[in-house]
Amino acid sequence: MARVAIVVGSQSDLPQVEEAQKTLERLGIECEVHVMSAPRTPEKVRQFAQGARERGIGVIIAAAGMAAHLPGVVAAWTTLPVIGIPLARSALQGLDSLLSIVQMPPGVPVACVGIDGARNAALLAAAILSLSDEGVREAVEGYRRELAGG
């Protein structure tokens, strides 16, 4: 089964992605979490993104605040699906991050969920993985049934 990688730019961003981790766990999807910064550790980001597929990663979730470079830089180094989570880390309450992520240039797409939308990022990652994994598809369908039930 393909796994999901979650990357954040700093240790202080880890609490914002806990909901993604919990949601993936609930759906039975393995995930790994990494801290790396696009402007401070660009070589680490490059190595991570280029090696993700070989490590069994199927989708990458990248959370970032302010100028939100991380999702775009990760997407530049891999053809795996990248989902950006804009974080409310500035006076603009995440609007700057949201716009930075959704305005990627043509040819290097990054999917984007709402500001601080970690749960939806995990659910989108699961939906992508469900295209080729029957177990994940069943887990996502079960989750949706639970939502409909109350």
Structure, explained:
The chain has 150 residues and is α/β, with parallel strands linked by helices. It has a single domain (3-148), classed as Rossmann fold, CATH 3.40.50. It has helices at 14-26, 42-51, 69-76, 95-102, 118-130, 134-148; strands spanning 3-8, 31-35, 57-65, 82-87, 111-112. Helix 2 (42-51) crosses helix 3 (69-76) and helix 5 (118-130) packs across helix 6 (134-148). The longest helix is centred in the last third of the chain and has 15 residues, at 134-148.
Q: Could you write a compact summary of the structure shown?
A:
This protein has 150 residues and is an alpha/beta fold. The protein has a single domain, classed as 3-Layer(aba) Sandwich (Rossmann fold). It has 6 helices and 5 strands, in the order βαβαβαβαβαα.
Radius of gyration: 15 Å
Described by its quaternary structure, the protein is: single chain
What is the helix content?
Answer: 40-55%
Overall number of domains: 1
What is the CATH topology assignment? Rossmann fold
Instruction: State the shape.
Output: globular
Instruction: Tell me what the CATH architecture is.
Output: 3-Layer(aba) Sandwich
Distance between the termini: 30 Å
